[in-house]
Design brief:
The protein is of the alpha/beta class. The protein contains 18 helices and 23 strands. The strands form 5 sheets. The chain has a 7-stranded mixed β-sheet with strand order 2-1-3-4-5-6-7, sandwiched between helices. Strands 8-11-12-13-14-15-18 form a 7-stranded mixed β-sheet. Helix 1 packs across helix 6 and helix 3 packs across helix 4. It is globular and about 70 Å long.
Length: 560
């Protein structure tokens, strides 16, 4: 009797940020497709997602399920981790077939000096859409090299070189099993919704890479079924996993029809990317009909030369007006890229100051050299040097290493002044309301007084007394039915949210109609910080009720 095949799928969870708590939706798509296939129904399929970066922990899990096939979801942050895990698994379970999928599962990653010696470690890379490809691999009677070569959509390594198998035909997206409808996603987290695949743009810095006509869409019925499943799970918010809300008219039509049928987004936050200069009345009407969404606008640069080099099209004449229109309907976050080839420190600062003057929340990313993007496009022309592990640009056309270091320090200082986040490759600046030119340039005091200087001092005093000076309040701001505090705790950042209980399903603690939650970076808070959190919440209730009750004109029901 043939032994049941065992399949393991591993994904490394991204860091959670406040109310935005995504998970590895793509890996769950693969899991759902494999488990729903004839081969998967005859196999034992194990799935694990964890934020752990501990190689031993991952190896122990893989070995504990004794898989015949293990698939790793490889991203920038998890590629090196899973490569070390795969090396150990290969040594301890040599007969196991090891496969990488995801955005970093590309031959060009193994062309980097750091990883070149590991090219023969894996049995296959799953390229592009991996659901059906991995399911076909799992269905093979034999897992030898000759059999793997019959599967479409793989990259295989032989005789010191990579070669690709035949490209698989594109299939109808509605044929994909939904992990949402199958109950394979975690409750209470930021779920993902897809309406189409591909991107009509060809931005060189983007993982989507060269233009791919998005000619396949999910039907309104499919999306509506996902919405109903998410409602049953108590999902608080959703992320549109498409290239943009308004880049595919058929995909948008499906989304709008599903929303009209279910009303799901009327009470849940939608996170989506939009392109302001391509917005139409139908998009604005849709955004006005749902719970106030959070929209990302990828400016990247105001420098025409840098945008032209990146293959990005931008109509500035309409841009500022559309941003103002969007701010009436949504929370808007703009994005810039620091270190784009063809840009320069001087032109970046101009872009940076103009983006700050928009008054929206701003995120600045250090430019990455991604597979299918800058790693293979115009590398010599742009004179790109980059870190082979983090993929961050170290120098390129328009930027010396010293230029990048100085500009990073400048952006980090502005972020600190304005109460934002400072990470290794990301800096954030909070939203401002009517900030003057001095504040917009980061030359003045922090824009931490958005709820008023008197209230800020009141909150700062409460927190200082409750923690005996262990906590420092960096900023306090209001966003609709929420008060957001950015706090420093013994040198580490901590974000606290005080929300009207009726508008949030998640809370660390609920006191007299106010729901308190928190988020950290780098792991959960220690016991001392948790005790201080409890001590802080009680005295913060009154100022939170004062701000939210007056601002929102809502009845704050007492819920203990």
């Amino acid at each position: 009797m043939t032994r049941r095949r065992v399949i393991a799928i591993a994904a490394n969870e991204v860091i959670l940020q406040g109310r935005f708590t995504p998970f590895s939706f793509g890996a769950r798509r693969v899991w759902a497709t494999v488990a729903s296939s004839p081969a998967g129904r005859e196999a034992d399929v194990h799935f694990r997602e964890s934020p752990s970066m501990d190689v031993d922990e991952w190896v122990d899990w893989v070995l504990s399920v004794e898989p015949d096939i293990v698939g790793f979801a490889a991203y920038v942050w998890s590629f090196s981790l899973f490569l070390r895990v795969a090396e150990r698994v290969r040594a301890l379970r040599p007969a196991c077939t090891i496969v990488f999928g995801g955005p970093s599962a590309r031959p060009q990653m193994f062309d980097l000096p750091q990883f070149r010696a590991h090219a023969g470690l894996l049995d296959a890379l799953v390229l592009n859409e991996g659901e059906w490809t991995f399911a076909a691999l799992a269905a093979l009677p034999s897992l030898d090299t000759a059999s793997l070569a019959t599967v479409q959509g793989l990259a295989l390594h032989a005789r010191g070189a990579w070669y690709e198998t035949a490209e698989p035909p594109k299939r109808a997206l509605d044929d994909l099993p939904s992990p949402t409808q199958l109950g394979m996603i975690p409750a209470g987290r930021t779920a993902a919704i897809e309406t189409y695949r591909g991107c009509p743009m060809s931005c060189s810095f983007c993982q989507w890479g060269k233009s791919d006509v998005p000619d396949r869409v999910f039907s309104a019925a499919y999306i509506a079924a996902d919405f109903r499943a998410l409602a049953a799970l108590g999902t608080p918010n959703v992320h549109l996993a498409d290239a943009g809300l308004n880049l595919n008219s058929r995909g948008f039509k499906s989304l709008a029809e599903a929303e009209r049928e279910t009303g799901f987004l009327r009470t849940r936050r939608l996170h989506a990317a939009v392109y302001p200069t391509q917005l139409k009345d139908e998009h604005l009407s849709f955004l006005a009909s749902i719970e106030r969404p959070q929209l990302d606008i990828g400016i990247q640069s105001f420098n025409p030369e840098a945008l032209a080099s990146a293959g990005r099209h931008f109509r500035e004449s309409r841009f500022a007006r559309m941003v103002e229109t969007l701010r009436e309907l949504a929370e808007v976050e703009t994005e810039l890229i620091l270190g784009l080839p063809g840009d320069s420190p001087e032109s970046f600062r101009v872009s940076f100051e103009r983006a700050l003057e928009l008054g929206c929340r701003l995120r600045v990313f250090h430019c990455l050299v991604l597979p299918d993007a800058l790693m293979v496009r115009d590398v010599e022309q742009n004179a790109i040097d980059f870190d082979p592990v983090t993929l961050m640009v170290r120098s390129c056309r328009g930027w010396t290493a010293k230029d990048l270091l100085r500009t990073r320090e400048y952006v980090a200082e502005v972020a600190r002044q304005r109460g934002g986040d400072v990470l290794s490759n990301l800096w954030t600046m909070p939203e401002t309301h009517g900030a003057d030119g001095q504040q917009a340039r980061g030359d003045g005091p922090s824009a931490a007084f958005e709820i008023g200087a008197e209230m800020f001092e009141r909150v700062r005093g409460i927190v200082g007394r409750a923690t005996r000076g262990a906590w420092t309040v960096r900023s306090v701001r209001r966003e609709r039915a929420r008060v957001l505090l950015d706090v420093e705790v013994r040198g580490q950042p901590l974000a606290i949210e005080a929300a009207v209980s009726s508008v949030t399903a998640q809370a660390f603690r609920r006191v007299r109609g106010i729901a308190f939650s928190y988020s950290t970076r780098g792991g959960p808070p220690d016991a001392a910080t948790l005790r201080e959190l409890v001590a802080v919440t009680d005295p913060l209730v009154e100022p939170a009720r004062d701000v939210l009750g007056a601002a929102e004109r809502v009845k704050l029901t007492v819920v203990e």
